[in-house]
Amino acid sequence: MTELNVAIARHGVVRAPGRLLCVGVGSCVVIALHDPASGTGALAHVLLPEAPPGAASAGGHPARYAVTAVPLLVGALRARGAEGPYVAKIAGGATLFPELRPAQGRIGPRNVEAARKALGDAGIAVAAEDTGGWAGRSVVFDVATGKMAVRLAGGETHVL
Predict the structure, then answer these.
(1) Closest listed residue to residue 32, CA positions, set 3, 12, 17, 8
(2) I need a surface site. Which of 12, 80, 104, 122 has the fewest CB within 10 A?
(3) Is 22 a catalytic residue?
């Protein structure tokens, strides 16, 4: 079985019986897409909602931003013959340090909102999510079943 650990601002794609993992998801958001018909899954570990002005031309990885990660994942799935319809799940977006940057808004909730919007713009509904709160998470996405296990830093696990 293939297990791929997806780092911050990166993405991965595997076929069943593979799994995609993200450890230490704080204010970042994990966007997972599953194509049940082909047994293929894709996941992005998104750092920010969108690129700051002028940064888009700097050549950063598209998985860094929610607005570019969703088209990246759809393209990666289609390149592997996974035509959809896709099932989307998201996790993360915690507010780990509420005292930082309150005037600009909390980055975690902004990441979650941007992920929802990018998925909606792509015509993909969010089937399940485990977002917000004050604790970090780790994620294991099993592409054979489409289930995503989300473990909170305190030890509790939710299966989406």
Answers:
(1) 12
(2) 104
(3) no
